[in-house]
Amino acid sequence: MNRVNLFVIGVNKAGTSWLYYLLDQHPDVFMADAKELYYFGEEGPDEERPETLEAYHRHFPFDRNHRYFGDATVMYYKSATTADEIRAYNPDAKLLAIVRDPIQRLLSQFQYNKQLGLIDEATSLPEALPDRRYLVDTSHYEETLPAYTDRFGADQFKVVSLEAGRADPEAFWAALLDFLSLPRAPRPEENDQPENPTGSPAFRAVYRSTVRPLRRHFPQAYRWLLGSTVARQTKLALLRLLGKAGAKSEALSPEMEARLRDEFAPTYAYLRDLGFEVYAETPVGEEPNG
Questions:
Q1: C-alpha atoms less than 13 angstroms from C-alpha of 215 in its C-beta half-sphere
Q2: Torsion angle, CA of 208/135/138/79, rounded to 10 degrees?
Q3: In 10 A of CB 41, how many CB atoms?
Q4: Alpha-carbon distances, residue 94 vs 68, 244, 275 (angstroms)
Q5: How many angstroms separate the CA atoms of 233 and 240, rounded?
Q6: How far apart are CA 79 and CA 148, in angstroms?
Q7: Radius of gyration of the chain (CA)
Q8: Distance between CA atoms of 171 and 276, rounded to whole angstroms?
Q9: What is the pLDDT of residues 43-94, one digit of tens each?
Q10: How many angstroms separate the CA atoms of 232 and 192, rounded?
Q11: Going by DSSP bridges, is the β-strand pair 6-8/94-99 parallel, antiparallel, or unpaired?
Q12: Which one-letter DSSP state was computed for residue 187?
């Protein structure tokens, strides 16, 4: 084998880090040493994109005995052209997308953009949305994911749900293994599960003054940092000290909630058509039943 044959194509702030970790723990799966390689498509920072196929393949030890070699890049889901590129590269590949309640995902990305310094801390969601349509568009899964279904079919492309996975982790894990035709293996321990949570305002201030400049000016050092155990432990310690920011922390007015419910009515319908009854009508700030 000399081709990547497993792709996690998105969606950002919907649980891709969790899915990446689960897959990487299976002995027959090797996920790329760097999450988010951006090789296919036009999305993503140019300074982090492998310039050649050979450079892309350096992230995968094809001489090892693994059933799957995986690339998890959350921007791949955005474009039908990217789907065509992946299909031309490996028409036999398996692909996964993970989704989340569209409003919860939007709120998480909104807070993460504050962490990155893309949105000022004092800016409210109603103030941010008019000039940042991408926050809404990213949650419209029904407009992007069908391109992958059309090109790869149900045998090769599967959409999974963060909420469904949290509600029944064993069933979620078993379904992943069945889709990938992998032998049974113990589900990775929840306590060992890395997350990519958005921090509190205090944590976000620390991030903007330290990690963000490193990523912008020294991308190679940033990539090394992503794989560093010490760096991860430091981040988790800061999150414990300074706190996390859950989607619940952005209080929505009844008017904004109604507006978003109306906006994402087609998205909820699409998710239910996929069999995710977990996305019933629930108040924003509460996890869907499941």
A1: 13
A2: -80
A3: 20
A4: 9, 34, 20
A5: 11
A6: 9
A7: 19
A8: 13
A9: 877 777 899 999 999 999 999 999 999 999 999 999 999 999 999 999 999 9
A10: 12
A11: parallel
A12: P
Residue 130 Ramachandran class (φ > 0 left, ψ -120 to 50 alpha, else beta): alpha
d(CA 28, CA 24): 9
Most confident of 149-153, 206-210, 255-259: 149-153
Side by side, the strands of the sheet bearing 6-8 are 29-31, 68-72, 6-8, 94-99, 157-161
What's at 273, amino acid-wise? D
Helix (H, G, I), strand (E, B) or coil at 282: coil
DSSP secondary structure string for all residues of 127-139: HHGGG-THHHHTT
Is pLDDT of 113 > 50?
A: yes
Which pair of structure tokens corresponds to residue 216? 């912008």
Two tokens at 71? 């690339």
Of the chain, the percentage scoring pLDDT greater than 70 comes to: 75
> What is the residue whose two structure tokens read 């994109």?
49
Residue 283 reports pLDDT greater than 90: no
Whether the bond between 160 and the residue before it is cis, its omega within 30 degrees of 0, is no
Alpha carbons 58 and 64: distance in angstroms, whole number: 13
In the DSSP assignment, the letter for residue 276 is -
Q: What is the DSSP letter of 70?
A: E
User: How many angstroms separate the CA atoms of 104 and 270, rounded?
Assistant: 16
Tell me how far apart the alpha carbons of residues 28 and 120 are, in angstroms, rounded to a whole number.
43
Cβ(70)–Cβ(9) below 8 Å: no
- Distance between alpha carbon 270 and the CA centroid of its chain, in Å? 19
Angle at which helix 16-25 crosses helix 169-180, to 10 degrees, equals: 70
Q: How far is CA 243 from the centre of its chain?
A: 21
| Continuous segment of H or E residues that includes residue 265 | helix 265-273
Q: Beta strand pairing status for 68-72 and 157-161?
A: unpaired
What would the two tokens of residue 271 be? 């998710």
Cβ distance 40 to 86 under 8 Å?
yes
